[in-house]
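On clarity, I found the account of how folds are encoded harder to follow than it need be. What matters is that the chain and its backbone geometry are given together, residue for residue. I therefore recommend that a typical entry be quoted early in the introduction. An entry of this sort, consisting of the sequence and the corresponding backbone structure tokens, reads as follows:
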Amino acid sequence: MTDQLQQLINGLALGSIYALIALGYTMVYGVLRFINFAHGDVFMLGAFAGYFLAEPVAKVIPPQSYLGGIVVLMLAMLICALLGVVIEFLAYRPLRKRPKLTVLITAIGVSLFIEYTCQHKKVFGASPRVFPELIPNTTWELGGLVIGSAQVIVLVTTILLMIALTFIVQRTKIGTAMRAVAFNPQAAALMGVNVNHVISFTFGLGSALAAAAGILFAMNYASIDPLMGVQTGLKAFVAAVLGGIGNLPGAALGGLLLGVVETFAGGMKGISNYRDAIAFGILILILMFRPSGLLGKQQTEKV
């Protein structure tokens, strides 16, 4: 029983990271109806932003302190939010009236551009780097369970960010505008909503969450590299589809479920080597039997 509870805690920590990335996928899909495949690379850029910010922040705030970790997290989120806005403005906005397939291919191109550019020796280089310890690394033992401070930080930070996101979407003027654009962008524009600003804000908000996920991931797994967003980003996309892409609670639920399933599979003899394939197996099953996802609603396409 203790082993199962330990796996559940590990799975929730991993799933929380998937959930944060999946929220970015689902917000962009909800507003623009396309998949931003470069989102996983913003997750990677967030981790590297934290890597490079750690040293200068440590000169002002004592290193390995919670305040220093929060400052690094907030700065990385701000940087990636700006990057998300720039990516949308340069790569996607000029193609907004083009077929969705054109934008989808562009997203793949943007993703590859970021990955190969970052692997250049004058940028990040291809070799993995050790992520610095942003907070004191503490371990607690409770009834046979081993819980690390990084896991607690992941869970607490994810809960706080999801509460903040829910407040923004449900209780603020810009959140109302986001829901209006997601429902009908033409009608929203006629009602005075600045659609361009809303879409830029959506990209910025999703990118900030991806940056937070990148730093939380790096705190738990220590090693970062320019391709770390490829597989993690795809799994987060699977989580968004699993929960119902376009649905914020669904993205969070899908991320947590995927993290728990993957962690339990990794601890089972005989199938542990297939833990990464399980996510894509789930994607195939969802698309076959419930394409709208667990919390998604079927929509009728107008022709």
Summary: The longest helix spans residues 2-32. The chain has a mean pLDDT of 88. The longest strand covers residues 139-142.
